[in-house]
UniProtKB/TrEMBL annotation:
Lineage: Bacteria, Pseudomonadati, Pseudomonadota, Gammaproteobacteria, Enterobacterales
Protein's recorded name: Polymyxin B resistance protein PmrD
Gene3D superfamilies referenced in this protein's UniProt entry, alphabetically: 2.40.50.650
Length: 39
């Protein structure tokens, strides 16, 4: 039961983490900074 629940939670969280990562990456690109240009 616990392992199945953990797998379901992971399946739900992974897309959210990917979305947050994309949003944060877009915010970094919109903000002009020397570090952003180097990356």
């Amino acid at each position: 039961m616990k392992s199945d629940f953990a797998v379901k939670v992971g399946d739900l969280l992974s897309p959210l983490q990917n979305a947050l990562y994309c949003i944060n990456r877009e915010k970094l690109h919109t903000v002009e900074s020397p570090l952003g240009k180097q990356l």
